[in-house]
Design brief:
Structural class: alpha/beta
CATH class of the largest domain: Alpha Beta
Number of helices: 13
Domain Aspartokinase ACT: 316-354, 388-445
Strand order of the largest sheet: 3-4-2-1-7-9-10-8
Number of domains: 2
Strand content: 15-25%
Bound molecules: adenosine-5'-diphosphate, aspartic acid, magnesium ion
Number of strands: 16
Catalytic activity: L-aspartate + ATP = 4-phospho-L-aspartate + ADP
Largest sheet: 8 strands, mixed
Domain Aspartate/glutamate/uridylate kinase: 1-276
Oligomer: single chain
Protein name: Aspartokinase
Enzyme class: transferase
Shape: globular
CATH superfamily of the largest domain: Acetylglutamate kinase-like
Distance between the termini: 37 Å
Radius of gyration: 23 Å
Helix content: 25-40%
Length: 451
């Protein structure tokens, strides 16, 4: 039995949190590989460091804040000299890259800068494990996590990762626990890349796939996947198990607890995924499996904020062929994936999927894209929207679902509806300002009053 355990930012935020995670790792001898995110807050600080026009003063403040988080952990570890000198090296590398970015705005440099967060946390976490008596090595995941060169949201190269893992990672597991980084990788030239924000879950699943592991554990700040984000509804309940399909839909439609791509490697190799809280491991968590005992019509409600709706209008669309093909080709050229779509005689409205959006938070709609679209149609953009998704089973084939849902939605304006393509979801696009109330109303009616 082999388990890959991933610990998110809050789980490795400080020394005490890291000690709790170390106890979880050591409690299960099957755990061979540990994947960590950057300590909580560090990636946000590094993202700000990549922004243009930072004053020198702000840049130094940001560097100091990252250093304070990392040295705080080192101090509590008693400053072992090898770890201290490696941490000094990483933090001075971070300072040097941030200075280079003032003049050179290359995306490869931004990814190199972002990677220092995970490099520091993995170094420190391996030291915490050793302090607790384990044999643990920190391993540079860039030796095996091969991606393309799309900096900021690089695409993992599955076959190559598998070979590299077999050659460079598996031999190390004979006599040591391996602690490695989530979120980062390297292209064929050895340049550092990142997988997009929240990508450490995906890293853990990819490594589990390459290692042919039996399970991936995602340790976070909530004891499992809930019927909705517990921060949004006090009545949200943890789910004991859900299917791969349901989990994939939840992650895609905004349940931040899992990066949307996490389920793909798990499905390919039928690897079970566990989600639990590193602060309260005794509470158990959620198992995501291929087969589950119950497949209820309503499983959860998810919300994705800051959605962009693109409205395209063209008289050429009337009874014409190929218009949509053209629009989709243009969006694909700009690496934008379309999310929801509705059409009428001369209009197409679509929401854009920000799932693969850039690690540095750069916007999706570039000038070049807008100009290219404008050559074929009139384009308008609407912002300040949220997509609320009801996730479940047989939604498209169960009578009464629409009546139930739209009765609850009566007080709200629904800008767009998508239902029917998948048996697992029904989505509505609403005003950002209504999103919390819509989620609350749906959750109360679908999960609390009927329970
Ligand atoms: P980590 O840093 O461990 O990766 P994240 O912040 O990325 O943690 O994800 C955990 C958060 O996901 C939770 O604190 C919670 O607010 C949010 N979340 C959103 N939807 C759900 C859901 N359905 N169930 C549980 N958590 C959810
Ligand atoms: N540290 C990265 C982020 O904050 C990756 C992750 O946490 O999954 O997005
Ligand atoms: Mg996360």
């Amino acid at each position: 039995m082999t388990v890959v355990a991933k610990f998110g930012g809050t789980s490795v935020a400080d020394y005490q949190s890291m000690c709790r995670c170390a106890a979880i790792v050591l409690d299960n001898p099957a755990t061979r590989v540990v994947v960590v995110s950057a300590s909580s807050g560090v990636t946000n600080l590094l993202v700000e460091l990549t922004q243009a026009n930072l004053t020198d003063e702000r840049r130094l403040e940001l560097i100091k804040s990252v250093a304070a988080i990392q040295y705080g952990i080192l101090d509590q570890l008693g400053r072992p000299s090898e770890v201290a000198s490696e941490l000094d090296r990483l933090l001075s590398q971070m300072a040097v890259i941030s200075e280079s970015l003032v003049l050179n705005r290359a995306k490869s440099l931004m990814d190199a800068l972002l990677s220092t967060g995970e490099m520091c946390s993995s170094l420190l976490f391996a030291a915490v494990l050793r302090e607790q008596g384990a044999r643990a090595t920190s391993f540079d995941v860039r030796k095996v996590m091969r991606t393309d060169s799309h900096f900021g949201r690089a695409e993992p190269q599955i076959a190559q990762i598998e070979t590299l893992v077999a050659n460079a990672l598996v031999p190390l597991l004979q006599d040591s626990l391996v602690v490695t980084q989530g979120f980062i990788g390297a292209d064929e030239h050895g340049e550092t890349t990142t997988l997009g924000r929240g990508g450490s879950d995906y890293s853990a699943a990819l490594l589990a796939e390459a290692l042919r592991a039996d399970a991936v554990e995602i340790w976070t700040d909530v004891p499992g996947i809930f019927t909705t984000d517990p921060r949004l509804a006090s009545g949200a309940k943890a789910l004991a198990e859900i299917s791969f399909n349901e989990a994939a839909e939840m992650a895609t439609f905004g349940a931040k607890v899992l990066h949307p791509a996490t389920i793909l490697p798990a499905v390919r190799r039928q690897i079970q995924v566990f989600v639990g809280s590193s602060r309260e491991p005794e509470k158990g968590g959620t198992w995501i499996r291929h087969q589950v005992e119950n497949a209820p019509v309503y499983r959860a409600v998810a919300v994705r904020r800051a959605q962009t709706l693109l409205n395209l209008h063209s008289l050429q669309m009337l009874h014409a062929q190929g218009f949509l093909a053209h629009i989709f080709a243009t969006l694909a050229k700009h690496r934008i994936s379309v999310d929801l779509i509705t059409t009428s005689e001369v209009n197409v409205s679509l929401t854009l999927d920000k799932t693969g959006s850039d690690s540095t938070g750069a916007g999706l709609l570039s000038e070049a894209l807008m100009q290219e679209l404008a050559e074929h149609c009139r384009v308008s953009v609407e912002d300040n929207l949220s997509l609320v998704a009801i996730i479940g089973n047989r939604i498209a084939t169960t009578a009464g679902v629409c009546r139930t849902v739209f009765t609850v939605l009566e007080p709200f304006n629904v800008r767009m509806i998508c239902q029917g393509a998948s048996p697992h979801n029904l989505c509505v696009l609403v005003d950002e300002k209504d999103a919390a109330a819509v989620v609350d109303a749906l959750h109360t009616n679908l999960f609390e009053t009927q329970a």
